[in-house]
UniProtKB/TrEMBL annotation:
Highest rank taxon of the organism: Bacteria
Gene3D superfamilies: 3.40.50.1970
Protein's UniProt name: Nickel pincer cofactor biosynthesis protein LarB
InterPro entries reported for this sequence: P2CMN_synthase_LarB, PurE_dom
Organism: Sporolactobacillus shoreae
Residues in PurE domain copies: 120-249
Amino acid sequence: MDHDNLRKLLKQVQKGTSSIDDALEELKTLPFEDLGYAKVDHHREIRNGFPEVIYCEGKTIDQVKGITLAMIQRGSSILGTRASKDVYEGVLEIAPDAVYHASAKCIVVNPKTQQLHPERTIAVVTAGTSDISVAEEAAVTAETFGQKVDRIYDVGVAGLHRLLAQLDRLRKAHVVIVVAGMEGALASVVGGLVDRPVIAVPTSIGYGASFNGLAALLTMLNSCASGVSVVNIDNGFGAAYTACLMIKD
């Protein structure tokens, strides 16, 4: 149950159109609903501003369907990350309007249709084309939560002129998410060009000595540019969630 539905229920009790017993029945699944294999946190949007997100990897199709159904019944916006096409096809059985973003590996049901802050933009920037899948996880996450996204892809430091050609777009953004593998230098470069928070996402893209993203992670953590924060390897979702919190109010 989100803020709007909870407020509506309380007003119904106040006006006498809903009894206290009916309201209590409605609130029984707050703060969570126990499905046996999962405790669905319906209260999270009230506490944190955004609903619980389903991390699909490691869950069975039936488990994902059960969690999705519980959230649908509460009117939540639903985002499933790290989802396979098979999981999506299972979710379609209970949510025919579900959308699968193949590059991001995300399932979206009932996204927020109204942008929370149309005048505020999250720029999602990648060093290379190989980083786009992680970047798309970030972009889809932000859009599902009602935020405006500007995608700026394949502007890595190997061709710095590509990045500089997008400087106006970067400087218009309110938060910049930088997604890069290899040595991960792009985050520091962007951090030195803008006066906005930069959230760096190291990816596991690269040859052997990149150590599946560890090299990029260490580079980003040791950035000499002020205002650069770092999330875990390949964690586009975490970067977008943080960016949404930065600009939601």
